[in-house]
Write a structure and sequence with these properties.
Helix content: 25-40%
Number of strands: 11
Low-confidence stretches: 284-300, 303-324
Number of domains: 3
Order of helices and strands: HHHHHEEEEHEHEHHEEEHHEE
Shape: elongated
Structural class: alpha+beta
Number of helices: 11
Radius of gyration: 25 Å
């Protein structure tokens, strides 16, 4: 039944009701290993729907753990392993439960959260959730679940987490710091951070003016404490100075261009020089996105987008969609 359902979806027949006709199709019988003419018909729509709706929270939890087991069986861990946490918008087509309007994407759907092992590009977890920015407690819960599963299987490996700025929540950072792991998260800029980096930015402008290069970069680090943080944390800044068309808002250069300094920040628990930490963060992101782009497209697709069936929910984490 599973093979018949999967083959139908792969062939573009996403509705379970299509099986009422496809169950007699010779090619579909061959796909599941039966004789095309003499074999009994395959499962009908009602049988397939009963199979798909029989899944429980326990099944969903076991599927989530199976992904972690699959990774740990395939990868020989080193002293430190990095995991990337991100989300991708999956547009909803109907009245699916958990679907939410996302103003940034101007779509209604899910912001499927996913975790990948950076070195191998292998998927570790996927969580179906509304298309809204995750709360700090939600990020902490997911990181805690996955970290504990990984540490049970890799007790001698230190786990590192990388994510964009909406994953750098104080709840998540505090849990990671208190449980022997590391993180490097994006950090939104603000006037206080810009003031701390102002001297470095001024020096960069001076060196860029003397240089013939179109862009000049530098890196710096300092400690900063946001209002919601209980203590200062290390912030790394990447500064890039380049010439941009002048809009009359700053001092013009002789060729009608102006200097502009772009600053990107990350907050991290890692030790090391600022340039190394920022370049490592950038290299991790680029390598992960390149190596796993095809995997993400297939792994994150919500298989059946037409019928609105409630998802299988497992506590506050690991939610998988029902289909058919």
């Amino acid at each position: 039944m599973l093979m018949a359902r999967s083959s139908a979806i792969a062939s573009g027949y996403e509705d379970a009701i299509d099986l009422d006709r496809l169950r007699h199709d010779p090619a579909m019988k061959v796909a599941v290993g039966r004789y095309p003419e003499t074999a009994e018909p395959l499962a009908s729509q009602s049988t397939i729907s009963r199979l798909e709706n029989s899944a429980s929270k326990t099944h969903a939890a076991r599927l989530a753990v199976a992904l972690v087991d699959q990774l740990c069986a395939a990868v020989n861990p080193g002293p430190v392993e990095i995991f990337d946490i991100d989300d991708t918008l999956c547009a909803a087509h109907g009245g699916q439960q958990l679907a939410f309007r996302n103003a940034h994407h101007d779509e209604r759907g899910f912001a499927t959260m996913h975790i990948y092992h950076v070195a191998s590009g292998a998927p570790v977890a996927a969580i179906l959730r509304p298309a809204r920015t995750p709360k700090g407690t939600e990020v902490r819960t997911i990181i805690e679940h996955v970290t504990r599963l990984l540490k049970q299987r890799w007790p001698n490996t230190r786990i590192g987490w990388r994510g964009d700025s909406h994953y750098g929540r104080v709840e998540a950072m505090e849990w990671i710091e208190g449980n022997g792991s590391d993180y490097i998260f994006g950090l939104p800029g603000n006037s206080t951070l810009d003031a701390l980096a102002a001297r470095t930015a001024d020096n960069l402008r001076f060196h860029h003016a003397k240089s013939s290069e179109p862009k000049v970069r530098t890196w710096t680090s300092f400690y900063y404490q946001a209002g919601s943080w209980t203590h200062p944390r290390k912030v790394v800044a990447r500064l890039e100075c380049s010439l941009q068309p002048d809009t009359g808002e700053s001092i013009m250069t002789s060729n009608g261009m102006r200097q502009e300094v772009d600053i990107r920040y990350v907050v991290t628990s890692l030790k090391g020089p600022a340039e190394h930490l920022m370049k490592t963060s950038t290299a991790i992101a680029g390598r992960w996105r390149t190596s796993s782009s095809c995997t993400r497209r297939s792994f994150l697709r919500t298989a059946c987008r037409v019928e609105a069936r409630p998802p299988i929910r497992c506590g506050s984490c690991f939610t998988l969609p029902r289909t058919g």
